[in-house]
Amino acid sequence: MIKKIIVVLTLLISIVGFAQKNNTSAYSFFGIGDKNSSSTVEQLSMGGIGTSLSDVYHLNFSNPATYASLRFTVYSLGLENKNTWVKDSNDKQSAAATYLSYLAMGIPLGQKGGLAFGLLPNTTVGYSLLANQYDTSGEVIEASAYSGDGGTNKVFLGFGYNLFKGFDIGLQGSYVFGKIENSIINQQKDVALATKYETISNVDGFSLNAGFQYKTKLNEKINLNVGANFDFENETEADGNEYLYSVSLISFESPRDTILNRESKGFLKAPLKTTLGVGLGSDNKWFVGADYSFQEALNVQGGVFNNYSKIKYDVYNKIALGGFYIPKYNSITSYWERVTYRVGVKFEKTGLMVDASGNGNDFTAIDDFGISFGVGLPVGQQLSNLNLGFEFGKRGKSTNGLVQENYVNFRLSLSLNDKWFKKLEIF
């Protein structure tokens, strides 16, 4: 197990040593970027459920109470490949990105507790947009190029504990940090120099969430699982600088006269987010469940959030349905009977409202719909497994000056399981 961890840590250092370009969405333009799902590949292959699902072999980021179920040391690494096809009323484009989606470890603490810690992307920024203005003859009289890069990461430490038979509680703390760069270059017809507005922001903040799970038997074969997770109100700060200067595009955007150079501060305040889950299942055989999440509107002010008069935030909610099936987890005659088969669907109202017209009264909600499936492939003679997941979905719409994103995501994770602490046996 130690050798495996050394190999994976080496891989992590190699990957993190390079800046990850892990977003290609126009919607990452807003706020501190596109919010990443804090779920494992296994969960995302089931629509993102997990609040009521506990597992001794896999980590579950949706509810820290699940760490109480750990019976093996679990090391988990996830990778994701995003493929997006974007269209508006005039054009179509495509983009792709591959990145490390999480790195985490879970450790059992006796028979009643467990802890987990790790690193995963929190939000991502990655866009390049061009907007032109035309005169009556159709000639371009003004062009604006928007670009952004960066995002935030999250490190977390969580603990779960079994209070009494069937009832677990958990608490998890996270630290968010990162850097975001946004710029707008504006060039007008017959003007020698363009102007460039740029913001460079350092983002950080703390968050805390708690959860519980309860599991009981309905009969000898079927279990009832219920759970809840609460992301408490938290605030993320963005401190940085704003710059405005003239540039010559011929000489590779070299700055000329500086018009503005000042510090900027802002914050994003996220209210309480509640996720409720319920499911039915049979141990090591099958599970079907549903999660429902809801949250009041985000509050953003100042700094990197200052220039977005075309957006506002509304109530967030999400419904996820999914499950898994294992034909025979301990089969010795058929490998495919030991494979875990997963499927799920999600319906998400992101809370983001965009007014592409700019008149302030024509906001359109940006919704997300996705269908997912995947498999968990046993590795070797141990309890480790390789998980593959696929997701097909659509976000936004191509009307009212907006863009519609059709996406296909491929995900891969490796879950290594082992006993770290064994009693000494003398023969």
Give the key terms:
19 strands; disordered C terminus; mainly beta
Can I get a quick summary?
The protein is mainly beta. Helix content is 4%, strand content 62%.
Could you explain the architecture of this structure?
The chain is mostly beta strands and 427 residues long. 4% of the residues lie in helices and 62% in strands. It has helices at 2-16, 41-44, and strands spanning 34-35, 73-87, 92-109, 113-134, 140-164, 167-188, 194-217, 223-231, 234-248, 254-270, 273-282, 286-295, 299-302, 311-313, 316-325, 340-354, 364-378, 385-396, 404-418. It has a 14-stranded antiparallel β-barrel with strand order 2-3-4-5-6-7-8-11-12-15-16-17-18-19. The longest helix is centred in the first third of the chain and has 15 residues, at 2-16. The radius of gyration is 24 Å and the shape is elongated.
List the helices and strands and how they pair.
Elements: H1 2-16, E1 34-35, H2 41-44, E2 73-87, E3 92-109, E4 113-134, E5 140-164, E6 167-188, E7 194-217, E8 223-231, E9 234-248, E10 254-270, E11 273-282, E12 286-295, E13 299-302, E14 311-313, E15 316-325, E16 340-354, E17 364-378, E18 385-396, E19 404-418
Antiparallel strand pairs: 1-4, 2-3, 2-19, 3-4, 4-5, 5-6, 6-7, 7-8, 7-9, 8-11, 9-10, 10-13, 11-12, 12-15, 14-16, 15-16, 16-17, 17-18, 18-19
Class derived from helix and strand content: mainly beta
Count up the helices.
2
The best one-word shape is elongated
End-to-end gap: 24 Å
User: Main beta sheet, described?
Assistant: 14 strands, antiparallel, barrel
Got a strand count? 19
Order of helices and strands: HEHEEEEEEEEEEEEEEEEEE
Lateral arrangement of strands in the main beta sheet: 2-3-4-5-6-7-8-11-12-15-16-17-18-19
Which consecutive residue ranges, at least 5 long each, have pLDDT under 50? 1-20, 423-427
- Portion in beta strands: over 45%
On the 0-100 scale, what is the average pLDDT? 84
Rg estimate, integer Å: 24 Å
Helix content: under 10%
